[in-house]
Amino acid sequence: MAIKKICRVSIHHMVLTTAILVVSFASVTVAFSAQSSSFVNSRSIYKSHTQGLTSTQPRRIRHTVRRNMVDPNMIDPNVIGNSLSDAWASYNVALEQSPLLVKSVTAGVILGCADFTGQALERSMKDDPSEENSVDWARALRFAIFGFVLQAPWNHFYYLALDGALPPTEDPLSATTGIKVVIDQFVQAPIFTVLIFYFLGLLEGKTMDDVKDQLDEDYKDTMLANWKLWVPATAVNIAFCPPLLRVLFLNVVFFFWSIFLSLKLNKNSDVEVDK
């Protein structure tokens, strides 16, 4: 029963947070794009309706024109699709112009949200409802900093080096792809996981010895869980994602992986507080 409860809560919070992120981004994008297009169209419609009006004519006429000039665009269903397409196109343009910065900002936002989800999951799993349920903003900030400073830059330069050494092939399921997956998961991933432990641990204020003890305790389990998720994810990423979008794909998968890391790396924090 406890396992089923944990699974239900985990899936609920993951889906809920993902939905909130997608809906929020879409809403802001649609609102901004609709507002911009409506403003442009409003000016042209207003100008066409007010040509010939003099300052001596009643203001009521001008106010009526203003009230009736943006409604058609706001109910056009094509606005949503066009706005999302424009937002995606703008993201890709920004990605081409400033790839490292865009990848880093994206990673920081996604990983920060992932830790919020992890904290929500922890609160839902607590047996005592009287326990403190406040959000640990510092912890979420640490994950956001990790995404911005380490995760995105590391993967940005790592994939540049990997593709430089083994250029992508036309066949997504080639031997080259298989070799890249092996290098990624059995050379790069073990090293990067150690860096994650040290980066987040030192950022939290732990000593080097504390981080080493945590690695001795959790590294093996973390790597086994890593391979279950990241071997297939990396195969899909290398085989089918354009090089420019690989870090974005990683960031999306890393949202769920960061929830696991957040729970794993902070499992001893509550114990220490209770002592």
Structural write-up:
By secondary structure, this protein is an all-alpha fold. It contains ten helices and no strands. Helix 6 packs across helix 9.
Ordered list of secondary-structure elements with their pairings:
Blueprint: H1 2-50, H2 59-67, H3 71-74, H4 78-97, H5 99-125, H6 137-165, H7 175-204, H8 208-240, H9 246-265, H10 267-274
Helix pairs in contact: 1-4, 1-5, 4-5, 5-6, 5-9, 6-7, 6-9, 7-8, 8-9
Shape: globular
Note the main sheet: none
Individual helix count: 10
Q: Helix and strand succession?
A: HHHHHHHHHH
Q: What fraction, in percent, of the residue positions are helical? A: over 70%
User: What value does the average pLDDT take?
Assistant: 76
What is the strand tally? 0
Question: Ranges with pLDDT <50 over ≥5 residues?
Answer: 1-70, 271-275
* Cα distance spanning the termini: 28 Å
Radius of gyration: 25 Å
Strand content: under 5%
> Pairing-aware structural class of the strands and helices?
mainly alpha
Which structural traits does this protein have?
275 residues, mainly alpha, disordered N terminus
